[in-house]
Amino acid sequence: MKSIIFVAVALLAVAAAAPVEKEPSKIISYVFEKQPEGSYVFKYETEDGTKREETGVVREALDAENNLQRVIVVSGSYTFRNDEGELDTINYFADESGYHADGKSIPKVPVARR
């Protein structure tokens, strides 16, 4: 009888410790506008403060062989809840030089001293 009670208590403890799945936040605003030449604006926000805003602009740039190419330069930001439950914002842009992001949760590269 003691072993049945022990097993029941153990199962109850395991069930209580199981992670509870959180309901996804509802989207409270959403915009996507695309222009015929390829430029766009995209943004959304959820009820918990999570959001993203992005703009893409078409421009011409030289490729590695010095040929003119159409590229989309992207810039924007996103805000999310970090592990401490605080809102954290990352700002970014991407162009022919690569992807660049900045925010308090992104480690900073130390500047080399000469």
TrEMBL record:
Q: What is the lineage of its organism?
A: Eukaryota, Metazoa, Ecdysozoa, Arthropoda, Hexapoda
Q: Any idea which UniProt keywords this protein has?
A: Cuticle, Signal
Pfam families from the UniProt entry: Chitin_bind_4
Q: Which GO terms describe its molecular function?
A: structural constituent of chitin-based larval cuticle
Q: Name one GO cellular component term.
A: chitin-based extracellular matrix
Presence of the UniProt keyword tRNA processing in the record:
no
Could you tell me what this protein is called? Larval cuticle protein 1-like
**Any signal peptide, and if so, which residues?**
1-17
